[in-house]
UniProtKB/TrEMBL annotation:
A Pfam family: Bac_luciferase
GO molecular function: alkanesulfonate monooxygenase activity
Full protein name: Unannotated protein
Residue ranges occupied by any Luciferase-like domain in the UniProt entry: 24-264
Keyword Lyase applies: no
Entry-linked InterPro entries: Lucif-like_OxRdtase_MSMEG_2516, Luciferase-like_dom, Luciferase-like_sf, SsuD_RutA_monooxygenase
UniProt source species: freshwater metagenome
Single biological process term from Gene Ontology: alkanesulfonate catabolic process
Keywords of the record: Flavoprotein, FMN, Monooxygenase, Oxidoreductase
Length: 322
């Protein structure tokens, strides 16, 4: 069953989280985190790969000390990289140190290179998702703060008590992210928030199948899977967060969409319709976002560190319109 309540990141408006990678120094990281908060973003998130980025939990601990209001989230932690008992403790510690601002985010792991380069077994998706489902049970059991035992196929816990307790009595809210049917059906059944990503079953970043899954039609399929998972679990559909993959502020909307579309294997019209793309003037992008809220119900988006300042006028315009 779902745990903590999803943070009200949207406050009934279209709202943005900035996904940060790294900075050259500690001072620059603190400055960047403060700027994100001052620009009106509602959250800071980090991803989880073995590339040139900060380690996620440590990075958000530093972000917590530099900020006061933003949600601190993971988009998403790869379940295979950490035992859930250790992760439960790390995240409740971060929750206490941030005064209850953590949005836990978890996925099954998808990037093949992460596994090859570290010598971890890249099991088939059904095994990785099965591990993730057990990990969710372990996390939520430990977040009660009571003695917890679990005997599953992948994890065993014997009377463990997790300390510190989460700030919120229901435990941490949990985002589950993915882009393929089984993962999104699982997320619909279990998550407090569902993060919609591309279909990365190939394990390769930028694969054609992943780009093809960014279209409006693919997005509707993903929402159908989430609804099906929620219905099977006898619960309402959870809120959805969308990862934005391309942003360009321009008064040459069609030309920019044509050029950007080539990278995604999409024509200009398909790129402009994609919820993963924001292209046009500030006014055009605001209109697109409001239309997508009406059409899909989307009011939570995650954007890259590189476009935080470019998108600031859109963030401000949407805040003023709420």
């Amino acid at each position: 069953m779902p745990g903590g309540s999803a943070p009200d990141e949207s406050t009934h408006r279209v709202a943005f989280t900035a996904q940060l990678l790294s900075t050259p120094s500690a001072a620059a990281w603190r400055t960047t985190c403060r700027e994100v908060e001052q620009l009106g973003y509602v959250g800071i998130s980090v991803s989880d790969h073995f590339g040139a980025q900060f380690a996620p939990v440590i990075a958000l601990a530093a972000a917590a000390s530099a900020t006061e209001r933003v949600t601190l989230g993971f988009n998403v932690l790869a379940n295979d990289f950490r035992h859930p008992a250790l992760l439960a403790k790390e995240l409740t510690t971060l929750d206490v140190l941030s005064d209850g601002r953590v949005l836990a985010g978890l996925g099954a792991g998808w990037m093949h290179a992460d596994y090859v380069e570290t010598g971890m077994a890249f099991d088939k998706a059904s095994v990785r998702i099965g591990r993730l489902i057990e990990a969710v049970s372990v996390l939520r059991g430990l977040w009660t703060g009571e003695p917890f035992s679990f005997a599953g196929e992948h994890y065993r816990i014997a009377g463990l008590v997790n300390r510190p307790r989460p700030v919120r009595s229901g435990g941490l809210p949990l985002l589950l992210g993915g882009g393929a049917e089984r993962m999104l059906t699982t997320a619909g059944a279990l998550a407090d928030v569902v993060g919609i990503a591309l279909d990365n079953r190939s394990g390769l970043a930028g694969a054609p199948a992943a780009s093809a899954s960014s279209t409006a039609a693919s997005t509707r399929d993903k929402l159908t899977w989430i609804r099906a998972g929620a219905a099977a679990a006898g619960r309402p559909m959870p809120p959805v967060s969308v990862r934005v993959l391309t942003v360009q502020i321009t008064n040459q909307r069609r030309r920019a969409a044509t050029e950007l579309g080539r990278a995604f294997g999409l024509d200009a019209a398909s790129l402009l319709e994609s919820p993963h793309a924001l292209v046009g003037t500030t006014e055009q992008i605001v209109d697109d976002l409001l239309a997508r809220r009406a059409d899909y119900g989307f009011d939570r988006y995650v954007v890259s560190q590189a476009v935080v300042h470019d998108l600031a006028p859109v963030v401000a315009a949407l805040a003023a319109a709420s």
